[in-house]
Amino acid sequence: MTVLLDTNVLIRFLTSDKTQKFQGVYALFESLEQGDLQVELKLIVLFQVVFVLKSFYSVPREEIATGMLRILEYKGLIVKKRRIVRRMLELWHDSKLDIVDCYLIACLEGDRQNILYSYDRGFDKFEINRKET
Predict the structure, then answer these.
(1) Which of 70, 103, 125, 131 has a CA 20 to 30 Å removed from the CA of 28?
(2) How far is CA 16 from CA 21, 54, 63, 82, in A?
(3) Torsion of CA 75, 56, 42, 108, to 10 degrees
(4) How far is Cα 38 from Cα 31, in angstroms, rounded to an integer?
(5) What are 43-86's pLDDT values in tens digits?
(6) CA distance 76 to 8
(7) Domain ranges in the chain?
C-alpha cells in the first residue's frame, strides 16, 4: 500500500491554517512525528510547497526551510534520499539560490567525478564539477 502526502495538507500545517481542517492536519502530523503513521513525501510535492509558500503566502525562505527541516525529522515521514533533501533545504536556507539549484548541488557535491552541465557560474563556488558545452 502507498500512502502519500499532498501539498495542501503540508501548506495547512506549515501556515497553521485556523480552519476546522487544521485540527485534523495537526493530529495527522502528531501521528507522523511519533511514528504512529507513515506517509511518503514526494520531492515534487516539497517543491510545490516551497513555490506556494513563497509566491502566494509570502513566507520567507528561512521559515519555509526551517519548517521543512523540522518535519523531515518526523519518524513517520518517508523521504527518499533524505540526506540530499536535507542538504538542499540547508543550502536554500543559507543562500539566495533557487531551490532547484540547491537540489542539484546537494545531488552532486562530495564527488568531483560528478558533472553538472550549466552556464551558471554561480555553481563554481560550490564543490561540484561544472562544465559548459
Answers:
(1) 103
(2) 10, 15, 13, 24
(3) -100
(4) 8
(5) 999 999 999 999 999 999 999 999 999 999 999 999 999 999 99
(6) 18
(7) 7-131
